[in-house]
Amino acid sequence: MTETSAVVVHLDTWQPTPKGIQVELLVADECVRHGLAVMLNSLAMVDGVHLWGSVDFAPRAAAASRDRRPDLLILRYGDLDAAATEQLARDARAHGTKVLMLLNRDHEDTLDRVVTIPSDGFIVQEDLTSASLAAAVTRIADGETPMPTMLADRLLTRARESALRPAAAGPNLTPRERQVLQLLIEGLSNKQIARRLTISQHGVKRLVSNVLAKLNCPTRTHAVAVALTDGILAGT
After folding, report:
1. Assigned CATH class of 152-230
2. 53-82: pLDDT as tens digits
3. First-to-last CA distance in the chain?
4. Alpha-carbon distance 236 to 215, whole Å?
5. What's the pLDDT band for 160 if we cut at 50, 70, 90?
6. Which of 112, 133, 143, 203 could form a disulfide with 189 if both were Cys (CB 3.0 to 4.6 A apart)?
7. CB–CB of 189/144 below 8 Å?
8. CATH fold for domain 7-146
């Protein structure tokens, strides 16, 4: 059945929490969409879920997200063309909404493209459970980047390949920015980086922003991929 409007799903037994997360969900497949909604609404950290079912509603979903400013937008990669997905994710993040990208295992051949989409984390549809979804949402809320094994393996492969090549000249990163980039490669959150470097989280946020700008990368994951591909930290 073709949907003509967004649907808000609430379970009768669900009660909102004072600091609950508002989630926007754009997934074309009805079964996956409603399954995700049920799992999300079962999480104590989630305060509400707004569903968009048709890819035709992407522009309206973007406009609605700007008005509501949800805390998290979940997009399934492949439901929209790559350009539309990137624009929607970029627009959401520009308005303070974090983006969780839902992947299928058959996206493994397009991982190099996936990491260029502005997003804050990734989760694999075939591995979805209430527990794994809760872990991903919690990690994103804490400033970490949840990453499935297939994507981590791809980045490790890049790291091995880059070790066999001379290091690229790379951007003019300061010693501190290079430290931060190395810790991003290790998968640390802003809070963990701040603790490791004994600086404030505000200082870490500024350094991460500098690294992303100098690498011309929209996301931490993309920056890690670029650093590993180009061997930017090789020899340091």
Report:
1. mainly alpha
2. 665 555 555 555 556 678 999 999 888 888
3. 57
4. 17
5. low
6. 143
7. yes
8. Rossmann fold (3.40.50)
